[in-house]
UniProtKB/TrEMBL annotation:
GO molecular function term, any single one: amino acid binding
Protein purpose: Reversibly catalyzes the transfer of the carbamoyl group from carbamoyl phosphate (CP) to the N(epsilon) atom of ornithine (ORN) to produce L-citrulline.
Compartments, as annotated in UniProt: Cytoplasm
The name this protein goes by in its record: Ornithine carbamoyltransferase
Domain (Aspartate/ornithine carbamoyltransferase Asp/Orn-binding): residue spans on this chain: 154-304
Residues the record lists as binding L-ornithine: 165, 225, 229-230
Species this protein is from: Pseudothioclava arenosa
Gene: argF
Length: 308
């Protein structure tokens, strides 16, 4: 029984095992209706709580469908509807939920909420996004890259835009899966220095390049995300847009990457802000494969957590 809290806290061997398992599970049910059960039912008799303190489409639906395909049951809980949103402590909530369910997935604001939930839970806890990281997304992205282009080790990934929670988990993955990552964006929105150091300490190149054209030259994968995340104040929107406009991923920028470079975005997107529709719907884009692969990657993550 292990929690999946972050990519940098999980061993490279275990991460690789999850990606390979996800791919095998995806292939095993290819062509079946979405609601068809998997042949094996590793979550039979298991109950999974999915807690959301922020909005979600992909995370909510992919976890729910994934649990059901594996024979388990889910309950989707909104943080504001729980006593958690009305003063009950995270520790007490965690201890109570652990008496009812076998696994907890939580999407929350502060990382401390996730960590406290995991500390007091007697069942595994999965990070479904915090202000600081989004590990499940990047597991799906690694699966997606490798399905299209083979091993990601040694490749050059470029993150263009805000050095946010999704960027952080990409930096963790760079270290754990062995690829280089160049961040391009304004200095005020750099990723946390500690995450760059984490990747470098693992022996990969993790660089900051302010010039987006220089950054994407030789890139195998270009990734971006919304310019204003769910935890960012609405008042920061205009300033962020002004700072980030030079880092929009458009066809002119994509043209400087390798000819077979892929484009990723975790979604939801603000089309024609961080990336143009031409790129999002163009030949390099794998955004909907990423969304689908949330399902397969998270099924593997849940099995790893439960050891089933
Ligand atoms: N990418 C992602 O996590 O999407 P949702 O916010 O819809 O869950
Ligand atoms: N960076 C975005 C990701 C959404 C899936 C946010 O935190 O809002």
């Amino acid at each position: 029984m292990t929690s999946f809290l972050d990519i940098h806290k999980t061993s490279p061997e275990d991460l690789r095992g999850m990606i390979d398992a996800a791919r095998a599970m995806k292939e095993a049910r290819a062509g079946r209706p979405r609601g068809a059960l998997d042949d094996d039912q590793p979550l039979a008799g298991r109950m999974v709580a999915l807690i959301f303190e922020k909005p979600s489409t992909r995370t909510r639906v992919s976890f729910d469908v994934g649990v059901r395909q594996m024979g388990g049951q889910t309950m989707v809980l909104s943080g504001s509807d729980m006593q958690l949103g009305h003063g009950e402590t995270i520790a007490d909530t965690s201890r109570v939920l652990s008496r009812y369910v076998d696994l907890i997935m939580i999407r929350t604001f502060e990382e401390e909420t996730l960590l406290e939930m995991a500390e007091y839970a007697t069942v595994p806890v999965i990070n479904g996004l915090t202000n600081r990281t989004h590990p499940c997304q990047i597991m799906a992205d690694i699966l997606t890259y490798e399905e299209h282009r083979g091993p990601i080790a040694g490749k050059k990934v470029v993150w263009s835009g805000d050095g946010n929670n999704v960027c952080a988990s990409f930096l963790h993955a760079a270290g754990q899966f062995g690829f280089d990552l160049t961040f391009t964006g304004p200095p005020t929105l750099d990723p946390e220095p500690g995450w760059i150091e984490f990747a470098r300490a693992k022996g990969v190149k993790a660089e900051i390049e302010r010039d987006p054209v220089k950054a994407v030259t030789g890139a195998d994968l270009i990734v971006t995300d919304t310019w204003v995340s769910m935890h960012d104040p609405e008042s920061a929107k205009e300033r962020r847009h002004n700072q980030l406009r030079p880092y929009q991923v458009n066809e002119a920028l994509m043209a400087h990457a390798n000819p077979d470079a892929l484009f990723m975005h975790c979604l939801p997107a603000h089309r024609n802000d961080e990336a143009t529709s031409e790129v999002m719907d163009g030949p390099h884009s794998v955004i909907f494969d990423e969304a689908e692969n949330r399902l397969h990657a998270q099924k593997a993550i849940m099995r790893w957590c439960l050891g089933v």
